[in-house]
Specification:
It is built from 25 helices and 20 strands. The chain is an alpha/beta fold and about 725 residues long. The strands form four sheets. The protein has a seven-stranded parallel β-sheet with strand order 11-12-10-13-14-9-15, with helices on both faces. A six-stranded parallel β-sheet has the order 3-2-6-7-1-8, with helices on both faces. It binds a DNA duplex (15 and 10 nucleotides) through helix 4, helix 8 and helix 17.
DNA sequence: ACTTAACGGGAATAA
DNA sequence: CCCGTTAAGT
C-alpha cells in the first residue's frame, strides 16, 4: 500500500477495471449487476477478502449468503487461498436456509420450539398435508395436497401467517384452515418446513427487537450472491439486518432469475433501490466464459424478453465453433446422437468431465443414461432420485430423527414397521389414539404404554420389543457418535438382511446406506443435530465433486452457477421447454426463456441444441408430433450449424416446413406442401432405416407417407415435413 | 392381522 | 415411470 500502485494490490490480481471498482468501493449498500460468466462470484469473494484484508473488518462481523452449499465451500477455500490465513474460518458463510436453520436452533425457545427440531422436507410436508386433509375430512381429489402445499408455501414466502391469509373465496377459506392445521401438526411434530426456516427467522427479527439487534451487530456486513432469486422472506431478513449499518453488498442478474415458482422475485432489485436510495451500482459486462458465437446466440434468446435492462455483454473470445442445432426422431435417437457425439469429442481430446448434458425435467435423463451406458461413457446424474430422498436413506435418517426428536411422528410412522416387525396400520391407529389421549407424540405414547405395562394382545410383543430398542437408542445417543448410532440402529433392526434381498436393487440400496455411513464417518465428531440439519439442507449440486471425471447430467435449474467447455441442451420442444405447465402465462414463458439462457451461457466452447420429433412419455401421446421450441426461432442463422447428422438427414426447406408455434397458438407459419414421395419409392429414415413407400398423400399442408420398413419395424405412417427421412435414388 | 404382489392413474423445476 | 390402492396370500 505504501506507494504501491493500487493495481498491484495482491487482492486485486487478475481483476478487470469494472471488477476492481466493485471490489474496492466504499462500505455501504452496493448492487453489482452482472451477466453470466462475468465473474460475479469472483467479485463477491474478492470483496469479502478486501473487507477482511484491507478494511480490517473482523470476520465474525461478516455474513455471506450463497445460493448453494457448494458455492459456500468454494468461496471459503478461495478466501483461505487469497488471504493466506485462517481468518475466513470465522466468517459466517452459507445458504439462506442453512443460516436461518442455525439462527432458529439458537433462538428455538423464543418460538416455543425445541432446539432439536426436525426439518421437514418435501416428502415429510406431503405426509403432514395428507394427514391434515384426512383429518379435516376434505376430498383429496378436490383439495390436492400438492396444490395446498403450494398455496401454503407461497403464503409463507410472502410472510403471510395462517391467521392473516386473505380470504376472497370459499376455496381461500379452506386453504386458510388447512394452513392453520398444517402448522399445528408441524408444531406438534417439533418440525419446521423449508419455508418456515425463512419465515420464522424474518418474523423473529420483526417481532423481537433484542434478537434483531443482536444479529445486526453480529452481522454488520452482509453479502449476497444470486440476489435475483431471493423471495420476500429473504429480502425482509436482509433489509432488517442491514437497516442500521447499511452495509449490504448484493450481486444479481435479472436474466438468470429462474426460481419464481419458489417465491423468488427479481423485483427485489427495485425494492433494494427504493429501500437504500444511496445504493451504489456496478455493471460487469465482460464475459470470460463463452465464445462470441455462444454469447451471441444466448443474447439473441434473452433479448426477446420484455421488462429487462438491455446489457452489452462482450467477450474477447472472438468467433468460436457454431452452435449445433440437431433434430432427432425421438428421445432415443436424440440420446443416441448425444452419446455418439460425446464419443467423438472424447476422441478429439476432451475429457468426460468437460461435458454436461442439460434438460428441463429429470424424467428426460433416462433415455440419455441408457445411451451413455450403451456407448460406455462414464456419467453422473445430479438430481432425479436425489440421494437423500432415496427410500433406504430416508429410513435410516428417520430413525435418527426420531432418536433426536421423539415428537417427530412423521419419521416415527415411517420406520415403526420398517423392516416389517408386525406393527401394521391397525396397531399404529391404536397407538395414535393413545397419543391423542395423552396429548403427546406416537413414540412418547409407545414408551409410556410400555413403561406402564399397559400392552396386551398379539401385537404387544413386537411393540414392546420396538419400544425397548428405541429407548436404548435414545439413551445411547449421549454416548455414541453418529456413525456408531447408525451402526447400532442397523444392527438392532436387521436392516442389512432386510435390504439385501438378493436382488440387484437390494445390493444398490445397501451400498447407498454404506455411502451414507461413509459420509458421516468423514466428520466423526459431528453432532447428531448438526448432521441432520446438514443432510436436510444439501442440494444435489452440493455433492458434485470436481474430482470425478464423468459427463454430468443435470436439470437446467441445477446448472445455474456452473460452467462446462461443452454443453448439450436437449428436449428443446414446445411443451418441454417452454414446459407445458408454463405456457398459459407470459411471465412463466419468460422464465422458461431465462432458463434456456442460463443453460446456453454455461457453455464455454461448444454448445449443442437438440430436439426430438416425437417424445413418448408426453401426455398427449405419440400421435402428436412435437414442435421445436419457439425459443429456437430467435437464434440467428449466422451462429448456427445444422448438421445433416446421418446422411439421411438433410431436409431442404426444413425450417419453413417444420417451424411453428405451439399447437393452438396463432402465428403458425403456412407452407405449401410439395409431394416428395410416391408409392414404390425407396426411402431412408434416420431411425427406422430403409423402407419402401406404400402410399403418400397430401393432407392439408402436409404430406402423409406410409412406409414399409425392414428389420422388423413394419409399416409406419409419417408426416413428411417432420420425419428425419429422405428419398433414396432409384436404381 | 399383516405383508406382498399386482394394478391403474398421474407425472416441473428444488432448499 | 413412481405412487397409492386394492386383492390375494401367510
Amino acid at each position: 500500500m505504501h506507494g504501491m500502485n493500487p493495481d498491484d494490490h495482491p487482492l486485486l490480481q487478475g481483476l478487470n477495471a469494472q471488477q476492481r471498482a466493485a471490489v474496492t468501493t466504499s462500505v455501504g449498500p452496493v448492487l453489482v449487476l452482472a451477466g453470466p460468466g462475468s465473474g460475479k462470484t469472483r467479485v463477491l469473494t474478492h470483496r469479502v477478502a478486501w473487507m477482511l484484508g484491507e478494511l480490517q473488518i473482523p470476520p465474525w462481523h461478516i455474513l455471506a449468503v450463497t445460493f448453494t452449499n457448494k458455492a459456500a465451500r468454494e468461496m471459503r477455500h478461495r478466501l483461505e487461498h487469497l488471504l493466506g490465513d485462517e481468518s475466513a474460518r470465522a466468517l459466517t458463510l452459507g445458504t439462506f436456509h442453512a443460516t436461518c436453520a442455525r439462527i432458529l436452533r439458537r433462538e428455538a425457545d423464543r418460538l416455543g420450539l425445541s432446539s432439536s427440531y426436525s426439518i421437514f422436507d418435501t416428502d415429510d410436508q406431503l405426509a403432514v398435508m395428507k394427514q391434515v386433509v384426512g383429518e379435516m375430512g376434505l376430498d383429496e381429489k378436490r383439495y390436492r395436497p400438492h396444490a395446498l402445499l403450494n398455496a401454503v408455501s407461497s403464503a409463507k414466502n410472502e410472510l403471510i401467517r395462517a391467521t392473516d391469509y386473505p380470504i376472497r373465496t370459499y376455496h381461500d377459506e379452506i386453504v386458510a384452515r388447512v394452513y392453520e392445521q398444517y402448522q399445528e401438526v408441524l408444531r406438534r411434530n417439533g418440525g419446521l418446513d423449508f419455508d418456515d426456516l425463512l419465515m420464522e427467522t424474518a418474523m423473529l427479527f420483526q417481532s423481537e427487537p433484542s434478537v434483531l439487534t443482536y444479529y445486526r451487530e453480529r452481522f454488520e456486513h452482509v453479502l449476497v450472491d444470486e440476489f435475483q432469486d431471493t423471495n420476500m422472506a429473504q429480502y425482509v431478513i436482509l433489509r432488517l439486518l442491514a437497516r442500521e449499518h447499511r452495509s449490504l453488498y448484493v450481486v444479481a442478474d435479472e436474466d438468470q432469475s429462474i426460481y419464481s415458482w419458489r417465491g423468488a422475485d427479481y423485483r427485489n432489485i427495485s425494492r433494494l433501490r427504493q429501500d437504500f436510495p444511496e445504493l451504489q451500482e456496478f455493471l460487469l459486462e465482460q464475459n470470460y466464459r463463452s465464445t462470441q458465437v455462444i454469447l451471441d446466440g444466448a443474447q439473441a434468446v434473452i433479448a426477446r424478453n420484455a421488462d429487462r435492462t438491455p446489457k452489452r455483454l462482450f467477450t474477447t473470445r472472438r468467433g468460436g465453433t457454431p452452435i449445433v442445432l440437431r433434430e432427432a426422431y425421438d428421445e432415443r435417437e436424440e440420446a443416441d446422437y448425444v452419446a455418439k457425439e460425446i464419443g467423438r469429442l472424447l476422441r478429439t481430446g476432451y475429457a468426460p468431465g468437460d461435458i454436461a448434458i442439460m434438460y428441463r425435467t429429470n424424467a428426460q435423463s433416462r433415455a440419455l443414461e441408457e445411451s451413455l451406458i450403451r456407448y460406455n461413457i462414464p456419467y453422473r446424474l445430479i438430481g432425479a432420485t436425489r440421494f437423500y430422498a432415496r427410500k433406504e436413506i430416508k429410513d435410516v435418517l428417520a430413525y435418527l430423527r426420531v432418536i433426536q426428536n421423539p415428537d417427530d411422528d412423521v419419521s416415527f410412522s415411517r420406520i415403526v414397521n420398517v423392516p416389517p416387525r408386525g406393527i401394521g396400520r391397525r396397531t399404529l391407529a391404536l397407538l395414535s389414539e393413545e397419543a391423542q389421549r395423552e396429548r403427546s407424540s406416537l413414540s412418547r405414547a409407545l414408551l409410556s404404554l410400555t413403561a406402564q405395562g399397559g400392552l396386551t394382545g398379539r401385537t404387544s410383543r413386537s411393540l414392546t420389543a420396538f419400544a425397548v430398542m428405541l429407548q436404548n437408542w435414545i439413551r445411547l445417543r449421549e454416548e455414541l457418535s453418529v456413525v456408531q448410532l447408525i451402526d447400532q440402529v442397523l444392527a438392532d433392526t436387521g436392516y442389512e438382511s432386510y435390504t439385501r434381498d438378493g436382488s440387484e436393487q437390494g445390493e444398490a440400496r445397501w451400498e447407498n446406506i454404506l455411502a451414507l455411513r461413509a459420509v458421516v464417518a468423514e466428520s466423526p465428531l459431528i453432532q447428531l443435530s448438526d448432521f441432520l440439519e446438514d443432510v436436510a439442507l444439501v442440494a444435489d449440486v452440493d455433492m458434485l465433486s470436481d474430482e470425478v471425471d464423468a459427463v454430468t447430467l443435470l436439470t437446467l435449474h441445477s446448472a445455474k452457477g456452473l460452467e462446462y467447455p461443452i454443453v448439450f441442451l436437449t428436449g428443446l420442444e414446445e411443451g418441454v421447454l417452454p414446459h407445458s405447465r408454463s405456457m398459459e402465462s407470459p411471465s412463466q414463458v419468460a422464465e422458461e426463456r431465462r432458463l434456456l439462457y442460463v443453460g446456453m451461457t454455461r457453455a464455454k466452447e461448444r454448445l449443442v441444441l437438440t430436439y426430438a420429433f416425437r417424445r413418448g412419455w408426453r401426455a398427449y401421446g405419440d400421435g402428436e408430433p412435437s414442435v421445436p421450441s419457439r425459443f429456437l426461432e430467435d437464434i440467428p442463422d449466422e451462429v448456427l450449424s445444422r448438421p445433416a447428422g446421418s446422411a439421411s438427414f438433410s431436409r431442404p426447406r426444413w425450417k419453413a416446413q417444420s417451424w411453428g408455434r405451439a399447437p393452438g397458438s396463432s402465428g403458425r407459419k403456412r407452407a405449401k406442401a410439395v409431394q416428395r414421395y410416391r408409392a414404390g419409392q425407396r426411402v431412408h429414415h434416420a431411425y427406422y432405416g430403409d423402407g419402401i413407400v406404400i402410399e403418400s398423400a397430401l393432407e392439408g399442408r402436409d404430406e402423409m407417407v406410409t412406409v414399409l420398413f425392414g428389420n422388423g419395424v413394419g409399416v409406419k405412417t409419417l408426416v413428411s415435413s417432420m420425419a428425419p427421412m429422405e428419398p433414396l435414388p432409384d436404381h
